[in-house]
Structure formats: C-alpha cells, structure tokens
Amino acid sequence: GTRGVGKTTVSRVLAKSLNCLGADGTGEITSAPCGVCQACTDIDAGRFIDYTELDAASNRGIDDVQTLLEQAVYKPVQGRFKVFMIDEVHMLTGPAFNAMLKTLEEPPEYLKFVLATTDPQKVPVTVLSRCLQFNLRPMAPETIHEHLVKLMQVENVNADAPALRLLARAARGSMRDALSLTDQAIAFGNGTLGTDTVRRMLGSVDRSHVFGLIEALARGDGKAIVDTSELLRVNGQSAASTLEEMSVVLQRMAVLQAVQQAVGRADEDTDPEAADIARLALAMAPDETQLLYSLCLHGRGELGLAPDEYAALTMVLLRLLAFKPTGARANSAASAPPDLQTVQTEKKTLNRAEALASLNPAPAAPARTDAALATVVLREPNPAPAPASVPASATEPIAAASAAPAGQILHVRDAPQARATAPDSKQNGALGQTEYAQHATQAVAIPVRQQHESQVDGPVSQSNAAQVLRTEDGDFWHPLVQQLVANDLVAALVRELALQSQLVARDTDQWILRVERESLNQSGSRDRLQAALQLAGYPVKLVVEVGRVGDSPAKRNVQALAERQLAAEKIIFEDAFVQEMMRDFGAKIVPGSIKPL
Question: Whole-prediction pTM value?
Fold first, then answer.
C-alpha cells in the first residue's frame, strides 16, 4: 500500500493477535486482541522481544538480513510466535533477497514474516510467490473525515466541519498525512481548527470562488472570469489549487447529472456544498461539464510552462469559455452585442465536409488501374462560408471532383467561370451562378501545405539523367554486380567500387576495371571484390585503373529510375481526367508529387 495507510499498524495488530493472552491470561490466538495483556501492551510500547521490525531502507544489505535470520533458529522467549516485520522490503539488495528465500520457503512453525512495501513491482517474483498478499488502498476522504471528527472530540479541540473536510481531502488517502496536517493546523490556529486558518495553511482556494467561476462559465460571462482570476492573484491563491478544486466540483456535478440518485449521498445537513453543486449541475449541460473537467485536468499541466502562473490560469479559464459547446452558447448569444452575435453565427456555419455532403454527388467514375501511380495535392483559395443552397448547374464541377478515382487529389487554383448565363442576383436575394460556382469550389477544397515552387504542365525531360554509353562488357558487368549486391557478397566501399566501375576488358584470368575517383582504387577493396567474384564463380584477378567512366552499374541504375519516372509522369499527364482538370480549372501538378511505384 501507499504511504500512511496502516501497513506497520496492521503488522503490529497481527503480532498482538498471534500473541494475545487475554485479560485473564488464558486467551488464545484471536482476531480481536484485548489490548490490556502483557503481550499487547509490550507490542504497543515497542519492547516485545519476539516482535522485530527491520527498516529495509537503511538496512538493505545481506549482512543485515543474515543478522535477522540468525534469530530465527531460536524459539520465542515471551510469546507464542516470533514476528519479523521488514518495512520497505523492496529496498533490499538482490543478495539479501536470495539469503531470505530458503527461510521464507520453509519457515519454522513459530516464525511469521510480515513484508511491507509501497512498490511491490520491485520485489522479486521468487519472494512474492511465497507470500500471501494484502493490498491496502488509499482511504476515502469520508473515512479520514470521520476519524478526524472522533479524534477532535477525544482531544477536546474546537474544529469546524469544513476545516476537517479540507484536511481530509489534502491528505490524499493517507491517514498519517491527515494527522500530521491536523497537528500543524492546530498549532497554526492557536489550538482551534478554523476554516479560514486551514485554508490559508494549505493554500487552497475558497470554494465560493470556484462556484463563481463555474457559474460564470455556464453564463458565458468572460468579464466575471477575468475579475475572479485577478482576485485570486491579489489574494495569493494557488492557480493549481483553483483548477484542482474546479475538477472536484465538476466531477461531482457530472455524477449528479448522470445518476440522479447520487443526490442522496451528499446530504445537505452534512455537506453544505451539496446544494450549490446540485444547482450548478442543473445550470450546465452534461457535455459541457465533461469538456470543462477535461480542460481543467490538462490545464494543470500547463501552469509550469507559462512565465506567469496566474496568466496561465486566466488562459485556461478563457479556453473553457472559448470551447463551450454550440448548444450551451445558444442561450447567451441572444443577449450578446451585435458584433459578438456575428462571430457566434459564423462559428455555427457548417464545415466544408458537411457542405459537400449536403450537395447531390454525381455517380462515381469507374476505377482505373493506372491511377495509383500518382499523388496530386489540393490547395484551397481564400476560404468562404458555403451558401445555404446551390443550383444544380453549380454542382457540376463538384460532382466531377467527387468522381475522381482513388489515389488522386486535385490541385485547384481558381474557380471556373460560369458556363451558363448567371441569373439576376437581386431576385430573391440569391447569388449569381458564378458566385455559386466559386463558393462550391471553395467548399470542397482541402487546405494543405502551400507549394511556392514552380509548377509543371508536362513531364520533365531526361536531360538531367546520367548518360550511359552502353558496351558489351557493361551488359555482362551490370547484372553480375546486381547479383553480388542482392546476395550481400559486397558491402560498403567494396559495393561502391563495383557499382561505380566500368568493366573495360576481361580475359580468362584477368579483368580490368576503370573508376573515376582515386579513393575507390584501394587494395583492400579490390581484394575483397576479387574474393566476392570468386564466390560467384569467377576466379579472376582484378586490375583497377583511374579514368573516365561511360558505362557503370550505377549509371545504368540512375537511367532506369529516370525512365520509370518519365513513364509515371506520362501516365498522369495523358490521363483524361487530369487533362480535363488542367483545361477547365487551370490545375497544375505539384513538382515532386508524382512517384513511380
């Protein structure tokens, strides 16, 4: 279990249960130790000779474990059982664990081991397999609060119920932390526990500010949000604590919205905040509550990235306001100024995908096998909102675009001109046909990275490709080198020597190679290439000279790749659909976007 959940206390209770003698001295092993016999009082006082606690964090070596195990051979002196409690057992070294294995596997009948750890994943499996495991979970804030109330009554300390709830939440499931914080709060408050005193000590935010922020978000009141954030800055309240408290309130609101029966869990008599939370749960839509909760959680991680914690808090709160769902914003739109209503109306405009779906698509064109050889990119002109209705004539270019085969995306630059006489735009407040066509084209355009390079209207020439002066020896040398490379017989500099060289002459026992760079003419590379040729069935001697190379395997590979590129570009530019788009829409192919497969 985690810190402060009672691991050591459970160990001592177990030791008392095994060794309790009862109030009359005739007791047996029990699940309810008396607490008054000699064994129980000695264990509580820490002087029971048969109960040994070992802190593995500071005694983690094999010598410390062996000293403990030396006591295992002796029977109990005072009680029925010896109990060895090893705290933070995961801190033991590997040899120390190995030294315990045999005793853990077959312990004497009078010996019990209790191993406590906060990280069981670090305990070896060989040890875990010999243990009975009990997982102590963090305590609920309600459980800690109940214990603190009883404790304050016993200690006669005046404590406010909200102050104890703050301490219970701040403990985060650890009873030890709750007791420590309570001691500090009593000292800080001069013997009393007041809500304001505890809040100042913990640096927590008053829930009234949190309720005000959530209520302002529900109303869409940005001014109240900024003013509250500035008030938190003036009062020195923690920004992280503000978002944390908002997350807690939003979580309880979401529970109330999802399960109405959960209202009974928060009785207004015991929790005065229940009424405010129930009121906010009714004032905010469930989807908005979920969105605000998620943004609060992510906003806590951004506080450390901003130069000013309170500026980051303000940005998170304004983000909550900006990302309000459209339905939640509808109520506040009516009372907004005219300019704000315009902005909100624009935000509600259908996106381009929805505008495209609302049109009547044309039948899809049949699939083509050569369409997969190209990738062409779409760019959007200045975006504009889609019109409410579009004439059938204006949907023709869109239908043609939607009928594009798979693997092709169009690069649309300008909207087409109207093919028919535009109707009077003044009649019924309708747009002209040309404007409709522009809007329709913009509705289906997809924004991508802008291409500022020059664009091409036809296949590139082969002027930049390597010129190969084919020879008869080259026809023999090229497939042989390709075979050596494919079989991994040559690598690194040896592979470069084979690819960049030209076979000038070959005899039965000697071949002459020519390279252009002196760096390739090294004896080590030549000898390894000669050995690779012998493995391929050509036991010859290689002679390498330096000179102009006109026919090498590398140049042939470059020429073959250029020919494949030209073939792919030819398929694209001769395609009827691409030609139609270039003719009707002024489309151009983005350089480098055509790749042969």
Answer: 0.44
